[in-house]
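Page 47, continued from p. 46.
Same chain as before, 91 aa.
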Amino acid sequence: MLGKLGGAKAEAGFLRSLRAGVFQLVDLTDEDVDRIADLVERYSDLPLGSADASVVAVAERFGITEVFTIDTRDFSVVRPAHVAALTLIPG
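Result:
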């Protein structure tokens, strides 16, 4: 989505920030995958894809309440288990 909306330079910049350690990739656990499947089914009317659902599952596991996203439509509807709603940045 970043490449589609922001272009190749924005996507490449994000990937380079991963390499620089600005963001950290985390592995999904079996429990995360179960939660992702539950979220995809629950929010099938969006449709919530597995990528967005994985962000929610990982946020729940780590107790994260703020999510940086350009996809405010899906994330503004999803209700995570650990907070009433995620704080979206930019909001």
